[in-house]
Amino acid sequence: MRVWEPDFKKNPFRDFVPSVDTILRVLAAQAGLLNSLVVEGIVSRFDQKVIQNPDSLLVDRLYLMREKPDRSDDSGWSIERLDLPRSEDPKWEATYVFKIAIVRLPMMAALALPYGYSCVLNGSRFEAVLDPSGNLVWEDLM
Predict the structure, then answer these.
(1) d(CA 90, CA 86)
(2) Which residues neighbour 44 within 8 Å (Cβ) at sequence distance 6 or greater?
(3) How many CB atoms lie within 10 A of CB 87?
(4) Which pTM was predicted?
(5) Residue 101's closest CA among 2, 1, 6?
(6) What residue spans define the domains of the chain?
(7) Which residues, including other chains, have CB under 8 Å from residue 65's CB and lie 6 or more apart?
(8) Which one of 4, 44, 81, 100 has the fewest CB atoms closer than 10 angstroms to its CB?
(9) 74 pairs with which residues across the strands?
(10) How far is CA 60 from the centre of its chain?
(11) Would you say 132 and 115 are in contact if contact means Cβ atoms under 8 Å apart?
């Protein structure tokens, strides 16, 4: 028996690889974060989308927030760059969840957090995680 996963580096809607390494790494990271916070997660599928500031996956410090989506192809996640000045009219673009696995695999752990949660990511480290009430539930003390 062979187990395959979508080829996230090519076209995961069409191409597959004879491995489940990426999926297992993502699931382990998500389970670790959710267990640390003692919360039940909500899946973000690889074929769903996130909205982000342009080039946000290429900068270190990011603010991620999840809201309950209106559409099944929306994960509910928004990713905002923290290196830009606040704008009344920020620019947004949609991208697939699977693209995060290619560029910023450690960020995939956050994408299992429930609706209403938010976090600050610095490189591959979580600086903070906030619950839906804005309470700090995780703080990186390093």
Answers:
(1) 8
(2) 50, 75, 76, 77, 97, 111, 112
(3) 8
(4) 0.89
(5) 6
(6) 5-139
(7) 77, 78, 80, 117, 118
(8) 4
(9) 49
(10) 14
(11) yes
